[in-house]
Amino acid sequence: MNTTGDPVKFPLSAVLSGAYVAVLLAACSVQPDSDRPAAPVDADQEVRSPLASTPPAVLATPPAEARIESPHPYVGMWVTADGYIRQELLANGRYDEARGERQSAYTGSYQVFDARIEYVDDTGFTADGRFDEDILYHGGYVFHRAQP
């Protein structure tokens, strides 16, 4: 929530896309070990991306300046009293829900509006819930904030 009391919306694609595009453009426009822009490539010459040899795990990690601070007080792990359902709300607007032994049983995006949360899972299913301090009511379940 911002200082006027209005909900703050962070469309994930808008937040992340700019940072990734900037990094990608910078990587593609500078020769390795040089500050000069890359020379034009002849049409018959093989073009190889400077990122081609970079492991996928490195590519998936955003640069430190692109990491998102917690946009609301509900980021973190939420669990049912029996511990069977564990839902992690990530600062980037994504969630990852485990059920029993099944890790990542449900994943998707979420948005928080005051004390209300709206989910869209990766299959398109939608749900909602509400927070009451350190309690989350969602899908007929009662979740409590996990202790760190």
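Next protein, fold it too.
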Amino acid sequence: MTAAPIRVLLADADPLQREGWRLVLDAQDDLEVVAEAPDGVQALALLRRVPVDVAVVDARMPRLGGVQVTETVATDARIRLLQRSPVTRVVLVTATDLDRFAGPGRAAGADAVLYKDADPADLCAAIRDAAAFRTIPAS
């Protein structure tokens, strides 16, 4: 019997970015993209309806940024009740200013903070580590 795949939500305003991540993650046997959102408000709406183990969230999104999404994920009762694990884990990503988002992202509860152009293996590892409740240093 194999373990259930890690269910992933992708949240980024750029559809090409989400598609690139989806291609990388769908090639992994243990990762499954179950939802996508173009902004933080829609990401939270999906998290209240779709069971997700790890959310990959852009730090800079329209309507609601990734740090705010991360804070809400940790405290929203409807999200906590729906999820298989105690709480959905978050991997925060940014195109620039990693130093600007690493501290606030970690304080909000992000398990990892990565550049968007991180090596695909690093993104997959960050998702797996987050699902296993292991935090990793910002990179």
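About the second fold: The helical segments are 15-26, 40-47, 66-75, 77-82, 98-108, 120-131.
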